[in-house]
């Protein structure tokens, strides 16, 4: 069963093959008959179908704001393309030969599936059947040896043993992180161990607590290659990364707060923190602890870094929202805060930063240059962090949108920026 769930369908041969099939079906549909009437009918269907697709996309993205901002280029191309193909298939059904009707009926789900997988693949976060269905097939995390504190700075006192693995390992935390303080029903966390953590006598390493976007789930796989690249440049040293669930379900949003939607804030600030201190070979120094995240998780990271600077001395916020529930602020105001605007304003990260003082916190912000919906939010948070006294860096990354590219490049930028602070580089 896992072999099927682990099949990569949003990239590689499966997606290429599906695209070839979709193109072949378009050709078969267009070649129905060589008459002017059919050519005009097909042209009208394609144009009308594409127009309906663009209209639906505009309403969902711009009017309903269902995705909290603009979508990527692949979505803008594939939705009208699939709609045009489906319209062509529909007008092919009347008065067609039986085999052509079969082709048209098959084409409709193939066009929809191909468009969906191309869009998912363009974002790059979900690749397998299991990813798309939110069925986790990740193996359990490896066991490690007790860690030892080495003299500071770590990069200078650490000597990588000859048998250190070239890459890190990652997996599901088992037994799961408890929720005694919060009662929050979180999904299993995942942990990444860099090469230096996998040797016989590992050093105490920095910790990165990371959160993915919404919809989404904890996934160390998405971060592993970036972390391996960082470790390869630093003698196997990198943070241990604990990827945790701030949502509770793929499409839920408890706002990273303690509300009627669940005690997500207490889970992250108490349950997760206590578990990490007791179970991971990480430094106890707050300047070696990072809270990070992407999109919804990036907003949560900025919030936790603002509220709990005594725990998290560093922030990496990648394409974050400005504050909790920003995309659905009216609904959140009514359903969560009972219409109390002052109560809602009190938990917005820029307001928390404006009221605080952070002389020994570092904050790194990154956002894609092709992600216009999140650039203003990222800049607002970075300015608020800088004004509050945090040492702040921000980068708008060219050639990246709101997909896996901004996660990988934003995380790489954040880690390299913080490496001296973490004791991992000169």
UniProtKB/TrEMBL annotation:
Keyword Iron: no
One Pfam family cited in the UniProt record for this chain: Esterase
Key words of the record: Membrane, Transmembrane, Transmembrane helix
Superkingdom, natural source: Bacteria
GO molecular function: acyltransferase activity, transferring groups other than amino-acyl groups
Keyword NAD among UniProt keywords: no
Transmembrane annotation, as ranges: 12-31, 38-61, 73-91, 103-125
Stated name of the protein: Esterase
